[in-house]
Amino acid sequence: MTSTTQHTLDRLLNGELSAAELEQLHQQPEFAPYLSLIEESGSWKVEDGLSVDEAWSKLAGRLDDQAKVRSITPLYWLAAVAAAVALLVLFLLPPSTPEQSWQTASGEQMSIELEDGSSVILNAGSSLSLLHAGDTRRYQLRGSALFQVSKGAPFTVETEQGAVQVLGTRFEVLADADHYVVSCYEGTVAVSAQGIEPDTLHAGEGVRLSDLGWLALESVGSDASWISGTTQFRATPLSEVLSAYERQFGIVLEYDGEERLYTGGFPNEDANQALNLIIVPMNLEIVARDNQKIRLRNVLK
C-alpha cells in the first residue's frame, strides 16, 4: 500500500474527506471494499489512541455484532463480509518479518506442532512462516500443507494469490505462483483473493482459483491424499499435476502444450514410476532430460 493510499484511508476512517473527495473515491475501484464496509457499519471514525489496524479490527467486531441481530440475513452474506473484513485487515497490516519458519526439501514431509495446539503437515518443496501470534494467528504459505486448527484467535493462511481464514478446523491449501486451491475436510473456511468475491467452504467442498473466478472441485475426499504416500488427482489441470511432481521430486518438468485435465495419481517415493503414471495416460513423451530437468511434449501422430 502506498503512503498516499494509506493517508487517504486514514482520512476516510476519520470522516475527514469532503463530499467532492468522497465522490472521487467512489470512482476508484481499489477503494470500493473500504467504502462498502464503512457504509455497512454506519457513521464511524477512528477513536483517539487507536491505530489503523486496531480501528479496522474494531470495525470488524461491530459488523459482527450487527450481523448477530439480523437473523434474516443469509449466512453466505455474513461469511462474505467476514472474509472481506479479514482480507482488508491483511492489506492494512505492514509487511511482517517471520517470527518462525519451516521448509521442506523435495521428497520430504514435515509435521509441525504449533504453540496454540494446532498442527500442520507441510508437503514436499513447501515453506510456512509464522507472521504473528497472539490476538491473531497469521501464517504465510508457499506450496502445499494440511492444517488442523485448534479453537482460539483468528487463524489466517496468507498466500501469493489470496488468504484463507479459518472458521473451522481441518483444511488443505495449495498455493504457488500459478495455482491456488483450497479443500475443506472439517468445519468451515473462508477463502479470498484480490479482485474475487470471497467464498465460504464447508466440509467436503473445495475451490480452485481460475481466470473465471472460483471453480468448485469435482471431488475433495475425506483428507489430503499425499499424507498417505500417494498423491491423487481428479479432473486436475495438467500444469498443477506437473507442479506437484516438481515439488515432490525436485525435478523440473517443462511442457508448453495445451492445458488438459488429469485424473490419476503417483507414488511419492518413486520419481520414474510417478512420471510414467502422468505421461502415459496424458499421451506425452520425453524429448530431453538431465538430472534436474525433463522436457515433455505431446506424442506426435
What is the total tally of β strands?
Answer: 18
SS class? alpha+beta
| Percentage beta strand | 25-35%
How many helices does DSSP assign? 7
SSE topology string: HHHHHEEEEEEEEEEEEEEHEEHEE
Taking all Cα atoms into account, the compactness measure Rg is 22 Å
Low-confidence stretches: 40-47, 59-81, 88-92
Shape: globular
Overall number of structural domains: 3
Query: What is the chains' assembly state?
Result: single chain
pLDDT average, as an integer?
80
> Which architecture of the largest domain per CATH?
Sandwich
**What is the fold-level CATH name, i.e. the topology of the largest domain?**
Jelly Rolls
Helix content: 25-40%
How far is it from the N-terminal to the C-terminal residue, by CA? 52 Å
What is the CATH first-level class name of the largest domain? Answer: Mainly Beta
Reported for the largest beta sheet, the result is: 13 strands, mixed
Task: Write a structural description.
- By secondary structure, the protein is an alpha+beta fold.
- The chain folds into 3 domains: 3-73, no CATH class; 100-216, Jelly Rolls (Sandwich); 229-298, Phage tail protein beta-alpha-beta fold (3-Layer(bab) Sandwich).
- Helix content is 29%, strand content 35%.
- It contains 7 helices and 18 strands.
- The protein has helices at 3-13, 19-26, 32-41, 52-69, 75-92, 238-249, 271-279, and strands at residues 100-103, 110-113, 119-122, 127-132, 137-148, 155-158, 162-166, 170-175, 180-186, 188-193, 196-202, 205-210, 213-216, 230-237, 252-254, 261-267, 284-289, 293-298.
- The strands form 3 sheets. Strands 1, 2, 3, 4, 5, 6, 7, 8, 9, 10, 11, 12 and 13 form a 13-stranded mixed sheet that branches. A 3-stranded mixed sheet has the order 15-18-17, covered by helices on one side.
- Strand 10 and strand 11 (196-202) form a beta hairpin.
- Helix 6 runs antiparallel to helix 7.
